[in-house]
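2024-03-11 09:14:02 INFO worker-7 job=invfold-0412 stage=load source=structure_tokens
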């Protein structure tokens, strides 16, 4: 299991496609990357906020802004993911 900050752009996009953005249910953020659903939820809540700001600027909806390029752009805004929790490794 790689830490979030070591995932490639394509892996981050794969992670994004495993979750339900803006869901009220933490279990909708379960993923195969070992990131706890709560941390994935927090991570993608920030991404949705970013998309909402883009949407406001362009007069669209936040989900219309969801793209590989915008996710990468948002990732460049931070380099500290020390708050991310990981699921325990199963033996």
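2024-03-11 09:14:09 INFO worker-7 stage=emit residues=91
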């Amino acid at each position: 299991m790689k830490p979030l900050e070591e995932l490639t752009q394509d892996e981050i996009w794969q992670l994004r496609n495993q979750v339900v953005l803006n869901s009220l249910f933490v279990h909708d953020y379960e993923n195969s990357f070992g990131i706890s659903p709560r941390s994935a939820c927090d991570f993608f809540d920030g991404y949705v906020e970013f998309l909402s700001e883009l949407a406001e600027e362009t007069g669209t909806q936040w989900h219309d802004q969801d793209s590989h390029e915008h996710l990468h752009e948002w990732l460049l805004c931070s380099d500290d993911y020390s708050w991310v929790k990981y699921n325990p490794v199963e033996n």
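2024-03-11 09:14:09 INFO worker-7 stage=report msg="The two ends are 13 Å apart (CA to CA)."
2024-03-11 09:14:10 INFO worker-7 job finished
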